[in-house]
Amino acid sequence: MIVVDTLLQERQTDGRPVRVAIVGAGFMGRGLVNQIVNSVPGMLVTVVVARRTAQGLRAFHEAGVEEVRDVESPAALDRAAAAGVPAVTADHTVATRSHSVDVVVDVTGAVEFGARVALECFAQGKHLVLMNAEVDATVGAVLARRAEAAGVVYTGCDGDQPGVQLNLYRFVRGIGLTPLVAGNVKGLQDPYRTPTTQRAFAQRWGQDPHMVTSFADGTKISIEQAVVANATGMSVHRRGMLGRDHTGHVDELTTRYDVDELRAMGGAVDYVVGAQPGPGVYVLATHDDPRQRHYLDLYKLGPGPLYSFYAPYHLCHFEVPTTVARAALLGDATIRPSGAPSVEVVTTAKRDLAAGEVLDGLGGYDYYGQAETAVITRRERLLPVGVAEGCVLRRPVPRDATLTYDDVDLPAGRLVDLLRTEQASLRTLPR
């Protein structure tokens, strides 16, 4: 919040708040509305986009806002904004084409829809903040390139683990160390979890069972770490990452990696299950200067060659407004792809799948995601998890087999498939 809080206060004093459209009014979307409305001077929620506008109304009402307009056109939204009244709409283009929106936040977790929202944002000159790592891991490289061409910021968010890792990565690199591992701390990993097994947990916290399942079955961690890899150029040791069980402190991980191997890889993304402090993130880094290593030892980071840096928490929607402000006021992305993907997330059967079956969505009953190098993904024609939903199986696939493009027929007319083709022509840019 350093600098950002000052800039937002200036906007508040000047009566020029950063105006935000939030696309998605689920668990996280409602929390974000509440956060901006009640805790972020200098920022304003102009509109919430939801398929069922009642969900958008609920988001405002939970934040203590009673007067809300249901609008169906950009002009109607602009009139509401001019009157100081927030709005809801079922049409995302109402938000993107309004003169009363500076930044759009996608909180949907939907790949195909998220890609359409992104292109609409770029066409209308709106900055885009993602609480949608799924679309970023699937077509983020080409979306970042298109955003750059449009002169707008495309970014993942503070609060989600990828953004927290990149903040830490940038800090570590900024003080002269070389980050070699970017990691995530998990409490549970079971690839065979389903919405049925996770229903009670989801109901307890008011969350969607499919989203909760994607956390438990490893899909989400693979998506998040792919996003980090594609922002840093890091890789993975193997399909699915190392993913060790480790009940000690993350500081102890400095002895668990081969530094020469990490250097040869250009660094690695990874995760551990059960470590402390959870649910945090960590960066392991090295320093080439023996004099500086002496100081790091004095400052209690140990003798090296790897040094541990960590954040003990990530506060999801609480921190997202920081990214909104960074994008709108500083033109700075929290996390974005650096070029062509270095890591993809591939589709692995959660159960024996039969020919003719239509694959369900992320966090469902049919498959889980695993991080894999982009080189292997291309060479073996592996099916990215972000394009799996709606595919029809041409032949049986046994449990734990990774699906390929040759195993499925793709749904017709999808934007995500066109973007994947475009993305295949990209090359990694210098970081």
General description of the model:
The chain is an alpha/beta fold and 431 residues long. The chain has three domains: 170 residues, 3-Layer(aba) Sandwich (Rossmann fold), CATH 3.40.50; 155 residues, no CATH class; 81 residues, Type Iii Antifreeze Protein Isoform Hplc 12. It is built from 16 helices and 16 strands. The strands form four sheets. Strands 3-4-2-1-5-6-7 form a seven-stranded parallel β-sheet, with helices on both faces. It has a five-stranded mixed β-sheet with strand order 9-10-8-11-12. Strand 5, helix 6 and strand 6 form a beta-alpha-beta unit. The longest helix is centred in the N-terminal third of the chain and has 18 residues. The two termini are 24 Å apart.
Brief descriptors of the model:
Rossmann fold, 7-stranded parallel beta sheet, 16 strands, alpha/beta, 5-stranded mixed beta sheet, 431 residues, Type Iii Antifreeze Protein Isoform Hplc 12
CATH top level label of the largest domain:
Alpha Beta
* Total number of strands: 16
Strand order of the largest sheet: 3-4-2-1-5-6-7
Distance between the termini: 24 Å
Main sheet specs: 7 strands, parallel
**Which regions contain 5 or more consecutive residues with pLDDT less than 50?**
none
What is the architecture of the largest domain at the second tier of CATH?
3-Layer(aba) Sandwich
Any idea what the CATH superfamily of the largest domain is called?
NAD(P)-binding Rossmann-like Domain
Annotation field: number of helices? 16
Specify the overall morphology. globular
| Overall mean confidence score, pLDDT | 96
Beta-strand fraction estimate: 15-25%
Radius of gyration equals 22 Å
| CATH-assigned fold name of the largest domain | Rossmann fold
Structural class: alpha/beta
